[in-house]
């Protein structure tokens, strides 16, 4: 019976994660529509964009359009290097132009990972391990993901408490089941115990 409850909890964990992932897939599309970028090159470049473009006097039209598009995206939401290239290719830019834009947009990928981490933590509870894995899924490197997790300001005990609260709002758990579920999500033993106690378990 306990195993069945834990398995149900694990399924809920995966469901919550997929909801977040789906939202991340939809966000770029939504921003794409908001910025009216269905035709490359329709943006009105800002000062930063002009400054960067001035650094490439021999830039091709395709590279210019990809770079301007990349800069507009980065002014709206965080991207990993791989994620930005994939998004630009999705919009119809060639692989070469997308790579050129990602390599020359001036983004600090560690800082992009940090912003992404803070965005995640603003909508859901994560363990440090879980957050790192999510960022890696988004295309950030191990080093970038660890930087974000180490500098996002999260209190992992409180994240465990919030995760426990979220689980308990869905279904009942014994203290032992809740601790095991939190450990499954990447929280340490001590963090999981803290999370359970913070929600009324002695």
UniProtKB/TrEMBL annotation:
Presence of keyword Membrane: yes
Record keyword Transmembrane helix present: yes
Top-level taxon in the UniProt lineage: Bacteria
Pfam short name (any one): Lipoprotein_Ltp
Record InterPro entries: Ltp-like_HTH, WH-like_DNA-bd_sf
Signal peptide location: none
Transmembrane stretches, start-end: 15-35
Domain Putative host cell surface-exposed lipoprotein Ltp-like HTH region, residue spans: 63-104, 108-151, 155-195
Keywords noted in UniProt: Lipoprotein, Membrane, Transmembrane, Transmembrane helix
Name this polypeptide is given: Host cell surface-exposed lipoprotein
Organism: Thermoclostridium caenicola
